[in-house]
Amino acid sequence: xxxxxxxxxxxxxxxxxxxxxxxxxxxxxxxxxxxxxxxxxxxxxxxxxxxxxxxxxxxxxxxxxxxxxxxxxxxxxxxxxxxxxxxxxxxxxxxxxxxxxxxxxxxxxxxxxxxxxxxxxxxxxxxxxxxxxxxxxxxxxxxxxxxxxxxxxxxxxxxxxxxxxxxxxxxxxxxxxxxxxxxxxxxxxxxxxxxxxxxxxxxxxxxxxxxxxxxxxxx
Length: 219
What we know:
Layout: H1 16-74, E1 75-79, E2 94-98, E3 109-113, E4 127-134, E5 139-143, E6 146-149, E7 152-153, E8 171-172, E9 177-181, H2 191-194, E10 197-198, E11 202-211, E12 217-218
Antiparallel strand pairs: 1-2, 2-11, 3-4, 3-11, 4-9, 5-6, 5-8, 6-7, 9-10, 11-12
């Protein structure tokens, strides 16, 4: 005969302690898995953010290096500070200067370092912009307000009609030098005052006006 103690009554409920233990075990396991998943996602997100930041830093760095190289060796943008090149260039115009053009021809507009015999004032720019008029070995003079180069009248279609140019005495351009004048002959302090400039002073040739947009174009 089987003892009642050895048989569980079908109607007898399972101990609450057992239920709590089983549920508690499942909950801890689930929480652990969720925590690991969240940690993995957070680490992945941080890694992606770090890669994105590094990518942007690298891109900006390359861009800065490119700008430095371009400004140093290729081209540079200058703003016109005075009226010496009016009407070709107005105050505030911005021009692109090619640093590769170190051997300009007559009529070209160039930017060059200020000659030592033309000392700058407190607010004067360190570089000047003028037009090439005389080449090495030539003699430049004026007659009746017109420019003559080695005895021949110079056609200056870039100047307004009736422009009067005064050169007090003939200027001989030495080897390795250029004579430069501003288009605004009445006010320009140029080669008539500081003489021919050494080609070594040339920064480059102005090739393009980019501002204002209404006057943008080649020079």
